[in-house]
Amino acid sequence: MDALLSKSCGIAAAQRGQIVQRVLVDGWSTAQAAATFGLQERRVARWVADYRRDGMASLREDDAGELLWQRWIRRLRGAVARCYGGVRRGFGLVEPAPCIELRRTGDKRGGGN
What we know:
Helix 2 crosses helix 4. Helix content is about 60%, strand content about 0%. The protein folds into two domains: about 60 residues, Arc Repressor Mutant, subunit A (Orthogonal Bundle), CATH 1.10.10; about 35 residues. It is mostly helical. The radius of gyration is 24 Å and the shape is elongated.
């Protein structure tokens, strides 16, 4: 098992799940888990963050290149969406939300009580 853990990209999903479990359930720090399993703390922190965001599905993704590619596409899509929204607002294609007057409980205006 130590030989497999020394290659961080060769860690199986079940082993990544155990490492994430140590941090989230057992209360280990990412540094403590990384030192115990012979990994970089940054990698363990990324696995924990991915697990919090995507759940069990994040454990299946092992290819770091694929993750980098997916992150790049996600950021590009977000940037395009922000630019498109800014252009729409700039040309007046988006109307502002209407103002709604909030009433307090017991307010005599418009309630009839």
